[in-house]
Every structure is written in C-alpha cells, then in structure tokens.
Amino acid sequence: MSARILIIEDDPGVQEALTELLYSEGFVAASARTGEAALEMLTRESFDLALLDLHLPGRLDGRDVMSEISQLHPKTRVIIITGHGSLETAIAAIRSGARDYILKPYKIDDFLTSIRRVLSEKETKARKEILIEQLASSLDQLKDVEGIRGEELPARRVASLPGNLMVDLERREIWRGDQRVRLTPTESKLLSIFLENRGRVLGHRELVFLVQGIQVSDGEAPEILRPMVSRLRKKLAVFPGLDVWISNVRGTGYLFDPS
C-alpha cells in the first residue's frame, strides 16, 4: 500500500508542486496550509509522514505542530522543511521528534531520498515490533508447554492495589468485584515489572530488557514499548481512572504510580 504523506505548507505554489511530485512517485498526498488544519486532519486520518514547514500562519507555528504530532500522533514521522534554517532550529526540530531537516531551495533527488529513508526506517521499526511480539508470544507458549509436561508451577502472585483492584500475575488477571480482565503474557510481565518498581521511572531501554530480555538501541526502545504500554493502559482503563497509573516521562521512560 502506498505511503500517505501530509504536506503542511502555506505557500500554494510549493504545496501544489510537492503534491504533484509525490503523486508522480507513487505516494498518496494530502495538504494543509495551517497548523490547526493539519492537526484537524490528523485526528480524522492516519499519515505515515508529514512534510512540515516551520513557518506557518495562524496560532500554531511549525514547532507547535511538531510537538503536537510527537505527542498525539507518534506513528507519523516528520520531515522539517524551511527556508529559514539554522543549526539551532535543526537541532531543536530533531530533539522534538523530526526525522530529518531540509532547507529550501532543495534538490528533488535529495528531497525524495530523505522521504524514502524515513519511510523505510518507519517500516523497519514496525516489523521489529511485530517480530518481538511474536517472539515473546512463542516463548510464553513454550513455557506453558514445559509447565504442562511436569514442571512445578510457581506460587500464585496476587497483589492488592488502590481502588479495590486485585491482580493475579500467574493467572494473568486483574479484577474488581465481578469485573475481570485477562492479560496477555507480555501485558502481565509488564505489569509485574511496574508493580516491582512503583514510583520509579524506568528508562525505555531498561524496560524493554526487563520485559523482553533483549538489548535495543535508544531509538528502538520507545517504538517497541509504545504499543505494549498502550495495550496495558487499555486493559486498566476498563476500571475508570486506572489508565492514569502509567505516566509517560517524556524522552526518558515510564512511571507506574497507583497511589
């Protein structure tokens, strides 16, 4: 399926030229002239990549849009495009989550190379997430089979949490009263680690290692963790108010605080 790209650019001529170029290269393109319009589109549609001009009219400039995309639409990669570039703005954009930085006027070949590289990196990380989930599931299934063949099962680990919530880590269940929710092996492992480290910020790489038992890079770790944490939050959200127990410490990791 063709990658979907959102052009956030207020110059009609540049916007039209980029749209035609992207369509000619086999991409699906849409456009917005203000930050507000771009964020509105992102709430209705999903995009693989946003081409973002830092200098936009209206209440939100490019840096504001960059921050919003990074927080609310983390799967959308961003390439900054600007004619007012400097080393400082480039560094600031990268720190905010941009994947590349292109100055106007740009060469078409360099521009397309940047787009393809960023999209390729996105696809590679998505594949890694799937493979890691499959590996974790296979390992858990193997452990279950070995247990059925005669290994002694560990003692049940049941924990009581605020709000009358109960957690059974061996049976992979959380419940309150008659309401019960089942956890996957990965979700149960993640919750177990959070329980053992209540009130402590766990770094992205450390948390991946504790849950999956693998060493990954600083860039890969947040991408691997994001879907796992999101699924656990959804399970906790079945009980009103509990999804806020897991906090994202921007640029660092996650904090579990059920107090």
Give a short synopsis of this structure.
The protein is α/β, with parallel strands linked by helices.
- For CATH, the homologous superfamily of the largest domain is named as Response regulator
The helicity comes to 40-55%
Would you tell me which CATH topology of the largest domain applies?
Answer: Rossmann fold
Helix count, DSSP H or I runs of 4 or more residues? 8
What structural class do helix, strand and pairing data support? alpha/beta
Would you state the CATH class of the largest domain? Alpha Beta
User: Which ranges are low-confidence, i.e. pLDDT below 50, for 5 or more consecutive residues?
Assistant: 148-156
Radius of gyration: 22 Å
Strand order of the largest sheet: 2-1-3-4-5
According to DSSP, the number of beta strands is 12
Number of domains: 2
The termini sit apart by 45 Å
Q: Tell the overall outline.
A: elongated
What amount of the residues lies in strands?
Answer: 15-25%
The largest pleated sheet is described as: 5 strands, parallel
Which architecture name of the largest domain does CATH use? Answer: 3-Layer(aba) Sandwich
Q: Secondary-structure element order, as H and E?
A: EHEHEHEHEHEEEEHEHHEE
Kindly report the average pLDDT value.
Answer: 83
Question: Topology, pairings included?
Answer:
Elements: E1 4-8, H1 12-24, E2 28-32, H2 35-44, E3 49-53, H3 62-72, E4 77-82, H4 87-95, E5 100-103, H5 108-148, E6 158-161, E7 165-168, E8 173-176, E9 179-182, H6 185-196, E10 201-203, H7 204-212, H8 220-236, E11 246-249, E12 253-256
Parallel strand pairs: 1-2, 1-3, 3-4, 4-5
Antiparallel strand pairs: 6-7, 7-8, 8-9, 10-12, 11-12
Helix pairs in contact: 2-3, 5-8, 6-7, 6-8, 7-8
